[in-house]
UniProtKB/TrEMBL annotation:
Gene3D superfamilies associated with the record: HAD superfamily/HAD-like
UniProt KW Hydrolase keyword: yes
Keywords: Hydrolase
Residue intervals of the FCP1 homology domain: 2-163
GO terms assigned for molecular function: hydrolase activity
Stated name of the protein: HAD family hydrolase
SMART domains: CPDc
InterPro entries assigned: FCP1_dom, HAD-like_sf, HAD_sf, TIM50
Domain of life, source organism: Bacteria
């Protein structure tokens, strides 16, 4: 077993690990939750199984708490444990005055109460506005909308291993992270 780092890796759900639709896509859904057809991002089970020995894992989605619980139950491989599984009730509702719309923000200050320092937290999201106040902690990935050739989780795995032993996640430039993964061994 590799050494586990002192880092907490928080993963978003929709368009990060899965894509949910209310009508079936041309590709077959992996499972259904209520009225939703759930498509898992390619490699999600392998990603979670391979990354869990290295990081403490959490899920934080701005979807309803029940939806989050059901989906996490369905996608979690054996032996993968979650330090937190959080849904909308842990998010902070914000108003975007330019767009005249509301959105949910994930404020990492709330995670500090679990005993993690901000320097130790990495949050993965496809929606920059949801991690607006976590700029130094966020790694943004391409949204997954059902492309069966998507390889984002393979790239992400390689990149995350380069952050594992960092002293302070917040001081590391993470923009353009994908171009920095090539020298490292991939998980497949
Ligand atoms: Mg998302």
């Amino acid at each position: 077993m590799p050494d586990k780092s002192d880092k907490l890796l928080i993963l978003d759900l929709d368009e990060t690990l899965i894509h949910a639709t209310t009508a079936p896509l041309t590709i077959t859904a992996d499972f259904q939750v209520d009225a939703f057809y759930i498509h898992q991002r390619p490699g999600v089970a392998r990603f979670l199984a391979n990354i869990s020995p290295h990081f403490t894992l959490g899920i934080w989605s701005s979807a309803s708490d029940e939806y989050v619980t059901d989906i996490v139950k369905a996608i979690t491989p054996p032996d993968v444990e979650w330090a937190l599984i959080w849904g909308r009730s842990r998010c902070t509702m914000k108003r975007d005055y330019t767009l005249d719309a509301y959105y949910f923000e994930k404020k990492l200050e709330k995670v500090k109460k679990k005993g993690f320092r901000l320097e130790q937290i990495i949050i993965i999201d496809d929606s920059p506005e949801k991690s607006r106040s976590n700029y130094g902690n966020a790694v943004y990935i391409e949204p997954f909308t059902g492309d069966s050739n998507d390889q984002e989780l393979t790239y992400l795995y390689d990149y995350l291993l380069t952050l594992k032993d960092a002293n302070n996640i917040r001081t590391i430039e993470k923009r353009g992270w994908r171009s920095r993964t090539w020298p490292y061994a991939t998980m497949h």
